[in-house]
Every structure is written in C-alpha cells, then in structure tokens.
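Job type: complex structure
Entries:
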Amino acid sequence: MTAATIAHEGHHDDHALALYREVADIRLLGFVLFLISDCVLFSSFIFAYIYMRDAAPVWPPTGVGLPDANLAAVNSIILFGSGATMHFAMENWKHGTEIKFRRWMVATIVLGALFLTGQGWEYTHINATWWGSTFGAAFFTLTGMHGFHVFCGIIFLIVLLNQTLSGVYNKKQYFGLVAGTLYWHFVDVIWVFLFFLFYVW
Amino acid sequence: MAQQARPRQGLGPGFWPVTLLLAVICAFCDYFVVVTPASSILREAAAPADQTDELFKVLTFFGVIVFVFTIGYLVYFAIVWRKKKTDPEDALGIQIHGNFQLELWWTIVPTLLVIAIGAISIKDWAGIFYAQGGQLAVEAIGYQFGWEFRYPGLADPVPDELHLPLGVPTTIHISSKDVIHGFWTPEVRLKQDAVPGLVTTIHITPTEVGTYRIICSEYCGARHGYMVGKLIIEPKNTFTAFLDHEKYVQAHAPKGPGGLPPGVNLANGNASAGQTLFAQKCSACHSLGAFDQRIVGPGLGKIFADPSHPKLVDGAAATPEDAAGIIDSGFTGDIGTMPNAKTNGLSNDDIANLVVYLESVSKGQ
Amino acid sequence: MAVAAEVQHSALAEHIHHAPKSFINRYIFTLDHKIIGLQYMIVGSLFFIISGLLAELIRVQLLNSDGRFLTPEHFNELYSVHGSSMVWLVIIPLATGGFGNFVMPLMIGARDVAFPWLNAASFWMFPPAGLILFSSFLVGAPDAGWTEYPPVSLQGPPGTSMWCVAIFLIGISSTLTGINFLVTMLKMRAPGMTFTRMPLFVWAQLATAVLNMVATTALAAALLALFLERTFGIPFYDPSHGGSPVMWQHMFWFYSHPAVYIMILPAFGVISEVLPTFARKPIFGYKMIAFSSIAIALLGFMVWAHHMFTSGMTPWLVLPFMILTFIIAVPTGIKIFSWVATLWGGNIRYTTAMLFAVGFIATFTFGGITGIFLAAVPADYQEHGTYFVVAHIHYVLFGGSVFGLLAGAYYWFPKMSGRLLNEFWGHVHFWITFVAFNVTFLPMHWLGLLGMPRRVPVYDPQFTDWNRVASIGSFFLVIGMAVFFINVIWSIKHGKRAGPNPWNARTLEWMTSSPPPYYNFVKVPGVLHAPYEFDQPLPYIGLEPAENVVSGYKAPMPAGSH
C-alpha cells in the first residue's frame, strides 16, 4: 500500500486519509526506533574511542598527527547548513510551494556532497592511517561510518526528490519526506558529537 | 458462563504441617552448612580464602532457605491443588488476584536479604582487596601454554613452579605475554585474569603447606586445558633454600650474551648513536633526570647508579641487561606501560646503542 | 473504562488484503506473521538439534579425564559453535521470531505485525546466518567460546571472522524484529486493550523487544571492530598495538547481558499464561509481574560487568555492578513467588504444558540462586571460568528458557496446527527431560567449585566420576528431546483435532479458529478487561464465534472489510 495508491484513490476520501494517517504514524515510530538503534551503534564506538584514549599512555600516539580542526569546522558548517536547507525545504513543501521546495532539496544534497568531499580531502591529508594507531582505528571507523550514513542519506534525498516529481506525495500525505528530514537531522546530531570528540577534546 | 469456584479451605489442606516440615528441612540443612568447615570440602591454602568461605556459607545458608521454601511450596501446591476426579470438567480455582500484604512482604524480605548479602559481600571483598601483602612480591606471567614466575633477586623467570613461604604476606603481580589467561588456585579461592598490557594483583598469606594446582581459568588457545602450573607452599627456610638454589642455577647456566635479549650485543653499542636515538625515540616520555622526574615514564639519568631506580620486583639497582630486556619486550606495571621495541621501531643494534648511552649518562652523574 | 457498544475500529484493522494465491507467496516468501513464526520455529528447532548433538560430542569427550575422542582444536570449536548457535540461532529466534511472531499479534487482536515485509526480511537473514556459522567448520570454526575474547580470538581460525559476519547478520534480524514488535505492541492493540489489560506474554515480549532493539547494535559494533582487526589489523583490542582486551569485554557484555534477558523474558511470559489457564484462576500479582518484566529489562542494561569481575578492570567498579546484580534478584523473586502463589487455590490439570511450567519454576529458581552466588564478587573469584558458571547458565537457559519454550510449544501447538500433541508422550518427554537435565547439570556446580575450569577437553582425574554422571544424563536428554520431536511430527498429521480453544483459555488467540484465518479475526474485538477472570464472561465484544471461523487461506474475505 504505497502513499501513491492511497493518494490517488483517496485524495478526497476520508477513510483512505485515516488509513494513511495510521500507517504513517506506525512508520514514523518504526523509523524513530531504527534511528535510536543506530545511535547505539555510534555510541558503542564513541565509548571505544574514549576508553582507548583514556588507557593510552601517550596521546596522540607517537607518529600520529591530529586532524585539522579548522577544516573540520568549515565542513561542519557546511553540514549544519544542509540541515537548515532541509528545514526550509520542508517548510516550503508544507506550504505547497513545490518549486522552492525542490531548490532547497537540491541545495541540501549539494551541501551533503560537499561535506563528503571535505571528508575525503581530510582523509588524504591527515597524518594518520586507519590501521596505524588506536586513534586511527577510532577516527576512521567513526567518521567513516558517519560518512557512509551521509552517503546513504544523499541517495535517500535524491530518491525522495524524484518521488516528489512523480507526485507520490501531497500536502497531507508525505511520510517519506518526514523520514528523510529526520534521518538528515540525525546525521547532523551524530556529527556534533563526533566533532566535539575528535576536534575539540 | 460463570463457574462455581472451589470453596476455600483456609490456606489449604496441610499447609501448616508442610510449612513446619520445610522449616525442619531448612534447619537440618543449614545446621550442616554452619557446622561443616569449608576446609573439609576443599582445603584453604592461604588467607583470605577464609573470607570467601565465610561468604559461601552465608550464601548457602540463605540459598537453602529460599530454595527449600520456594520449591517446597511449589511441589506442595502442585500436588494438593490438583483437580479432583470428582470435580466437573471445567471446575475453577479460587479467583484471587493477589494479596497486598503478602506481596509487600515478599518484596521487602528479599530486599532486606539482598542488602544483607550485599553488605557481607562488600565486607569480604574489602577483606580480599585490602588483604595484607607486600612483604614478598612475585610475578606470575602466563603464556601459551604455561606459567613462569619471577622472584626477587633472580634475574630470570622460573618456569612452572610458584614457591611461596608459609605465613609471609605476599603480593602476586599477574600478567601475560600473549593472550588473556586466568590465574587460579582453587585452594586459594582467588582468581584474576592474566591480561597482556595490564598487571593484575592479588594479596595472600599462605597458611597451609602443600602442593596445589595453578589452573588457567580463561580460554587461551588450543592447549588451554593442559595449562597447569604448581603452587608450592613451603616453610620459610625451604623457600629460602629454593631461592638460593635458583640463584646458583641461573648464575651458572649457559646463557646468551649476559642474559640479554637474543641478538643484542652490548659490546658493539655506540653511545653517541644512542644519544641521537634517545632524543628521537625516548625523550617524548623519558627525561634524563632523577627517577621521579617523570614525563610519562621515569627519568633515566641514574638508573644504573642509584638503588632508588628499582628493578620491578625488589630494590636492587637495574643492570644493563635489565634495561635491554625492558626496551626489547616493553613493560607494563603500576608505573605505566611502555611499548616494546617492535612498536617503537628499534633494532637490536639500536637497543645496544641506547643501553650503552644510558650507561654513560649514569656513570657521568 | 468501557468501550462503546459499537466497537470503534482503526482503519488499519479494517484494511484486509486478499490472500496471496501461489504456494510460494503463502508458505515460502510469506508476509503472514503466523507462517513466519512457524518458519522461525522450524529453522530454530533444526539448529537446536544440531547444537545439541555438538554438545553430546563434548560430553562423550568428557567421559574420560584424558579423552582422545576429539582433538583439543575440534573440542574448542564444538563448544564455541554450540554456545553461539544456542544463543543466536536457537533461543533468541525461537523466543522472539518464533513464539513472539505467532502468538503476540493474535494476543493483542492485531491482524499482523506493523511491518510484515520487514518481518519476512528478518526471517530470511536467519538461515544464511546459520549456514555461515556452521560452514565455518570447513575452514576452522571459531574456537574461543561464544564470547571470543581477544587477543586469543585474533589468532583464531578463519571461522572466527565468519562468526563475526554470521552473528552480525542475525543481529540485524534481531534488531529489526525488536523494532517491528515494539511498534506492533504500541500501536496495533485491539480497541480497549490498555496496557493493564494486556496479557503477560505481551508484556514479556514488550520488554524483550526493547532489549532487542537497543542492545543488539552494541554487539554489532564489537563484532565489526573484531572483524576489522582480524582482517585489516585495525587496532582495537590487541595490546601490542595499543588496543585493550578488556574493552572487548565491555562492548561484548553490554549486549550479551541484556541478551540473556531477551532469552528468558519470553519464557517468563509463557509461564504467566500457562499457569492461570491450567490452574483455572487468575495469575497472582498481575501488575507486579508486568512491572517486574520492565524493571528486569532496564536493570539488565546496568549489570554487564558482572561477567568481568576477574578481568583486571578498574577494581572499585566491581561494587556497583555487584549491587545492581543483587537488585535484579528482587523483581525476579517477585515473579517466582507470584507464580507459586498462582498454584495455590488452583484446580490444576496436568497437561504437559503445565508440567513444564511447574518444572521451569523449580529449575529456574535454582539457577537464579546460583546467580546470586555469582553476583557476590568474592564468591565469583572462585566460580568464574569454572563449571559452576556452566551449571548456572544451563539451569537458567535450559531449565529456564528451553523449558519455558517447551511449555509454550505444548500450549500453542493446537493453535498453530489445529491438532493436539500426544499427552502421554508429552508426559514421558517431561519426566525424562526433567530428571536427565538435573542429573546432567547439577554435578557441574561442585565440579566447578572444586577446581574444574570450563572449556577444557581434559581434566584432573579426581573429577572423572561426576563428569561421567553428567555425560550419561545428557544422553538421556537426547532421548527425551527425540520423543518430543517425534511427537510433533506425528501429531501434525495424526494428532487429535483441536477446536479453537482446547484449553478453555481466555486470551485472544483462542477466540479464533485453529489455525487462525490468514487475517486472524473475522472482526477485531473490543477488550473490556484483562484475560484472567475465569469465573466471568469473556471480556470481549464484537467477536465472531470461533466455531464459525474458517482456518487459513480458505477463509473468505470478511464482510465489510476494505
């Protein structure tokens, strides 16, 4: 039962709308629970990083250069910016201004891709390897997992954008977009923790 | 549709006689728990094994009561409240949902019991953690698949046998060369894992002469089941004789060059090469000042000249061989952890150079 | 709180699909929670039989103190796969994916789970995960126990990496099932079914789903790190590269302790349903049993390091973990006492399900008491890593989880198949199993305390006699379980026909046909009361009489559905 089917059949049908609302409610809870379990994944590795750092006699480990906080700060602004553009996109969708919605969505996707490019640049210029130290182990695994989540998020947003173009959603029935927004903000929140952990602490 | 519930019969046929019987069974079992010395089941070879045994008795005492009454009532109810053949097919039981008083008490009493057991456990834990030790310090080092032991005054470890003198408060520092092992003598009632990269510690005072097994209690590889050492508790003079004998054996045993790590030849060491190396590799963690001038590790300025730079186990001054050994295999202990030569990227020649350099620094100050 | 005489249904409850037509869509790639539940049960039972036989090989080796039946390498592989399989391929899938899937939606009056497609996907990860784990025997199976502590697991054969992959996969399945069930129980209960009108089996599944959902990803992290270190040398756990072996233990046990509650809570739920049904009286202390399930789930997250008392972790840390572990004993004890009190004043019929429920209380209580012995740190110093622990885990996991699931099997077999299991052979199964179980595992307590470590293929000759007793006991366990499986296979075709409610029980799954129609209920009823008042009329309104309900896919589309 896709939103498309319901939307087409039941655009003016109260029963179909009630059904959609129930289904969307269920899906929203499921998606939030999924994000919570994803949080635990990141939390476990964050625990590992804190543990390894606390146990290490010397930090950073000999031969390791800590990453550049300034580059990361710029990259973070890009990522948080994409959170803002996502928010504006959703506001426009709810008001029915689809063209503006699409522009803000594209901006979000572009900023997300820029963030990943920044990460890639940092990976190639940092004085640490994934296998060379416990710092590398934690840093590349955590930022790598996060980057993978951002990548999946970008794909997700592209798919959603495409779906809006083929009329899958309308002003009342747009659960996919809600999920996309939530996911994108989730990725932002995780980055707040990672930024603090690796670049501030 | 309502069915007639079975009429009440007080607490049920024979409830109080059964309760009395259960109490008698408890008293009977717990009497034996109290009077049987734990050492008659398994010898107690060292203090504070008696603390552990006291706790076992407490746990068994209360465990018996909980088990006998719970299972006793379970079995009794299961038998006595069976459907009678004369009852109609769908006859009901007594339709109660609960009993506030009863539920309150069976929450409060276990909570109190748990608090009591907790308090006794904490007391016994403290008795073990803060047990006397330290008059003698030995090391137990596990490897795949055996134990070796270091004693004060002996340069080399002794394989397989941990000798301890009767009545002497002893600290055993436990570590591992490779994977996690478990250091366990059942008669001592204490166990700590031997973890590579860490030192764990137990304090005991041997109280009973004998030979006991040291069992590896943590899976460590294919021959984990065969990894057994010996704990030999002996009178003080026998222990001293053992140490003397080992000293003699080690002094006269054919060795590699001066007991150094294989491939390290101090005669070829170059002090100025060592100085460069020191600045590159060591100065991040070690100063050349006194022992207590720590950056991460201790100051190395006087390690060969001053007994306040102790060897790990006793107070004697370190030898060049000791230094070479530590640089080669790394070190883990109360004062910290030092990576081994491989991690630091040091060759055998580098080790020789560093040691010779440190000797020159020691002599010069 | 009454429900209106005309039950207000959710739009979702009135939304019934046409039944799938092909055999494949009905029974293989099904989205029907009932069939998926059966799929889990079949595959889980297969893994149970195989892992059980692995254990028998272990017991043959241990007949002699210097047995040569197996090489040490094979021996280590056997108990490692036995443990891993029993935890992740048997008990957790059977308890959640099997019984949870079949029974829970029926019990709450739902037509399926919240995400049927996800449910099927969760199941289809299960056989591949098992295949990966068992095929590791071809290249050297994992050999460091189900706990795979590094650094020794870093040295392990290729099967250790396969173990990481297999468990990661089944972990994804578990997490998704947890999410699915949680949403189902929170959002899809029948009208009027408030939390305090939910059956206790549902409370148990609720607590379990939370654990499944939150804890399993922590294991995924640990497995991923171990896999990365073994494959690419990424330093997490190897101390010679700066890593920490103790860190693995924290990460592993943070999941694996809640995992044992995932394994036991559904069994608790079964007992709470079986006892009132066959004693013909309400469960004693409903609210306390419900809340204690939640308490156990929450506390279960806070005690993981009680597996690490001898590990060399920061010394003072043992105390809070010890205290919290003691505290868990209180809600557990409350349940046990409530179950015993449920028997008081009953009018008890000893079906096999009831026998296993009563047997469960005995063996689980004993296992719970040895848990207190393990929680007390100084006592644990003697017990850790010995057969005392092996005894404890089997009392709570076999005498607990397996007995509970067996009670559930006898109880719900009629609902699943429309036929009854043979009660005579059920009684035979119970008595052989109960006696053999105790003969096998009771001696292990003193074997451990007197000096026999675990995970060893040989042992000090002084322990020979009791090891032989345990081994002989275990051979009879095989006989008992064989009786059960033969009973199941025979009864599917030839068992006495069961109607909708052979036990005269009161929970919703019994208010429809056996097996239920593919949409579960012709009309989703409204719920007026908790289902434990045996002297009252059934607390449901709007039910179609179960005798009129057609089973399975033959059932016609209900009138008025959209």
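Summary: The helical segments of chain B are 15-35, 49-80, 100-129, 236-252, 271-282, 320-329, 341-344, 348-364. Residues 260-364 of chain B form a domain with the Cytochrome Bc1 Complex; Chain D, domain 2 fold (CATH 1.10.760.10).
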